[in-house]
Design a protein that fits this description.
single chain, two-stranded antiparallel sheet
């Protein structure tokens, strides 16, 4: 009996399929044999034997090269996302109000809607190219070509030639890039589940969080810093009024990088042969299974909790930088301050991974909520302070840097543990669709509240036009006031009161809900009724607590 229990504990996650919580037939046969014949010597799984003989770098053994490939693919994925996030900073001082910012925020929605075409990516492929490379290679070539073409039109769209900002053109092109990156993410997520051995499958979330973070900062802070004359002059012998790069040159550089690296992956990175027994059920069947997962009570509670928590931080994440610029902080100073956080953002996921790689990943998520609330309140007060001072001394930047570090640590704790949880419960037989399903719903939980926040902030702000004889209000139109010789005086800023109220009231309640849900899952998986859920569950089939979270998100029979 002891050997059978340990055999079950060592069974990889993908041994449990979506339609049954029972192990595969091979595992069941081993269990029956060990039970009938008495205690049998325990065999170390093949992948663990290899690892014990040669742990290699970071204890990864033969998976080290695979981890490097995954990391770099996620870095490439983060670059278009970072470039998209840099546009609001570049156009903030050239537009009036936040409604246009809300319109541009639709560029992030392909990542929140990729669930619609994820089964297609999993089910349609060429066996010659490989299940994942059939999509990955063409997609990354398309991103590279698009990045080489966009510079020919983006200058006019940004108003660099004296024209108006063309938000529609900018949103269209960057939405296209995000769509390609989102589809690439589906392929890479699915490849990660099969590229790594069962012993190192937890590194998939590390590669995702670290790689995407590095790529995002290359595209966002990396670009804004290199585009800033003040930042570049720190390393020049002669000061110039231009940065080291422009949006056009930066896009061309990454276009070349995408084409070269994709060629390397296509030629030198081999994909495992498609095993017929591990293939998906089919295109239609995958959609049906996906809908069954969405209707699971545990999934609904999990996504509902994440949605409210993300909604509480949406105004802070989407408006803080823009509000600081509105208060008088220059873009160059904002970029320089944020650039100091790049090493921290890169190292944090690696440090936090060892604490989240446990049987209860959501414990780390819950542990990051209160610190994020506290640091979020401090950031809100800092933004409020910037509107009351004329100059920003060294103490302002030091305080801002310390508060931002606290916020980044808490946010990274929540992000990494969330990705680790999603990777653990994802079933390899659904390829990237299962993990994409959870990631998509979570992304939508963040993007939708941010768009609403940008759209609402002007509408809940009360301001009057002072000094104009024809205009009395600045509601939704500051340009009209200034063009008639007036200035807008804000009486009630729509950023502060709703921000503090929502953060203080909703996040603690939802944090408790996530905790109770995780505890309930663990109790049911162990066979004991949870304190707040005494109804027997049909999914109490996985005895080891290591897969408690998966038990709660598995499909009922």
């Amino acid at each position: 009996m002891v050997s059978s229990v340990e055999e079950t504990e060592n069974t990889p996650i993908h041994k449990y399929n979506l339609r049954s919580r029972k192990p595969d037939s091979t595992t069941a046969t081993k269990t029956e044999t060990s039970t009938s014949a008495g205690p049998a010597p325990q065999d170390t799984p093949p992948d663990q034997k290899d690892m014990s003989q040669n742990l290699g770098y970071f204890g990864l053994g033969s998976d080290f090269f695979s981890v490097c490939v995954l990391m770099f693919l996620y870095v490439l994925q983060g670059v278009p996302l970072g470039l998209s996030s840099s546009i609001p900073i570049m156009i903030q001082q050239k537009i009036s109000g936040y409604s246009q910012q809300a319109a541009f925020s639709i560029v992030s929605y392909p990542f929140s809607c990729k669930l619609l075409w994820a089964p297609l990516v999993d089910c349609v492929y060429s066996t010659k190219l490989g299940r994942r490379k059939s999509w990955l290679v063409p997609l990354q070539y398309c991103i590279g070509v698009a990045m080489l073409y966009i510079p020919s039109v983006i200058g006019d769209a940004l108003g660099n030639n004296g024209g108006e900002i063309q938000v529609g053109v900018l949103a269209g092109w960057f939405c296209f890039l995000t769509f390609l990156a989102a589809t690439q993410d589906i392929a890479v997520d699915g490849w990660a589940l099969t590229m790594l051995s069962s012993r190192n499958v937890g590194w998939a979330s590390t590669c995702n969080s670290v790689g995407q973070t590095v790529g995002y900062f290359f595209g966002y802070l990396g670009f804004l810093a290199l585009e800033s004359p003040m930042f570049c002059n720190l390393f020049r012998s002669v000061e110039l009024d231009v940065g080291c790069v422009t949006m056009e040159s930066y896009l061309r550089f990454w276009g070349v990088v995408f084409i070269l690296t994709t060629t390397f992956v296509a030629i030198f990175v081999r994909e495992k042969d498609v095993d017929i027994s591990e293939q998906d059920e089919g295109f239609v069947e995958t959609y049906k299974s996906m809908m069954k997962i969405i209707r699971l009570k545990s999934v609904l509670v999990y996504i509902g909790c994440i949605f409210v928590i993300k909604a509480s931080f949406a105004p802070l994440d989407s408006l803080t930088g823009l509000k600081l610029m509105e208060a008088g902080l220059s873009k160059d100073n904002l970029v320089t301050l944020s650039a100091l956080l790049i090493p921290l953002q890169v190292l944090l996921p690696l440090i936090i991974t060892k604490y989240t790689n446990s049987q209860f990943p959501l414990n780390t998520y819950v542990g990051g909520v209160f610190p994020r609330i506290f640091s979020g309140i401090l950031i809100t007060l800092l933004v409020y302070y910037t509107f009351s001072v004329a100059e920003f001394g060294p103490s302002f930047y030091v305080a801002g840097l310390i508060i931002q570090v606290l916020y980044s640590v808490a946010a990274t704790m929540m992000f990494v543990s969330q990705m680790m949880f999603n990777a653990r419960v994802s079933d390899v037989k659904m390829g990237g669709t299962y993990m994409t399903l959870l990631n998509t719903l979570i992304n939508l939980s963040g993007t939708l509240p941010q768009t609403i926040s940008l759209w609402l902030v002007d509408r809940v702000t009360s301001s009057t036009c002072v000094g104009s004889e024809t205009v009395t209000s600045c509601y939704m139109d500051k340009d009209t006031c200034t063009s008639t010789g007036g200035t807008c005086s804000t009486e009630t800023d729509g950023f502060f009161r709703p921000r503090l109220c929502w953060n203080l009231c909703s996040s603690p309640l939802e944090m408790v809900s996530v905790k109770l849900n995780d505890v309930s899952c663990v109790a049911r998986a162990r066979g004991a009724p949870a304190k707040r859920d005494v109804t027997p569950s049909p999914i109490v089939k996985i005895p080891p607590p290591h897969y408690a979270s998966q038990a709660c998100l598995n499909l009922p029979t």
